[in-house]
Automatic annotation (TrEMBL):
The protein's name in its UniProt record: Class I SAM-dependent methyltransferase
Pfam families found in the cross-reference section: Methyltransf_25 (PF13649)
Stretches assigned to coiled coil: none
UniProt superkingdom: Bacteria
BP term (GO), one: methylation
Amino acid sequence: MDTAAFKTKVTDAFNGAAATYDRLGVEFFTPMGRRLVERTSPRPGERVLDIGCGRGATLLPAAGLIGPTGRALGIDIAPAMIDEARHEAARQGIDNVELQVMDGEHPDLPAGSFDLVLGSYSIIFLPQARAALARYAGLLADGGRIGFTSPVFTRDTFPFLPPMFTELIPLSLLRHLPESWHPEQLHRQLHSWLERPADLTAAMEQAGFTDVEIVDEPVSMSAVSGEAWVDWSHTQGMRLLWQHLPEDEAATLRSRLIGALDALRDGDGPVLIEVPVRYVTATAAR
């Protein structure tokens, strides 16, 4: 699949998911976004850019820390996500944010105009993420910082899903996906440089960053039930899989996932899954 077609698919998927994204009784992107903000420590008065801001899980906590003298810009390729983030900012009474529909791979923004660039589970979706990182370095002022999150990628697991799901999702389902979206192909094309910390550090330095820090921490994903998780999975990256499955196979997978997830519950308690997340921070090298 070429880059334009891939971006169109991602845009359509997240436009369709925007109204229920990170809702439906599941917590994951919000706590991960808050933790990224904690690790990057936005300061009062700083200028922050959030790449692929979604509904604002990272953007809005950052805006709260930079205060009224700071400026936070959130960009996303999906117009519906920008609308949702705008509504959420208004609901929270946050007025130091600006939101624009923009391709995060090629942000049309002035050089040196930000102190901090953020991207939570977004930069990794870019077909040419390593080239984009160099552009972000150019957007940062002297001493500017970057922070983003990534799955802890391995060659034998599905991207963007907790490791336990590798056993729950039959590999036979991959025949319904474009070959370029198979886990090993996605890994080879997009994510191989993210797997080993040494390779990731080298990529960051090549892009114009220094003081690279890579920390893997679990995020506790919680869902009120297995059914809630499966419904929520239609609102994030896994939506790309559901869209390609024939109705009968989608129903079988749905039942299988709900049963396995509910088996993790303690009585009527929530489903709790520890999801490994990689936090990457660095400073512009100048």
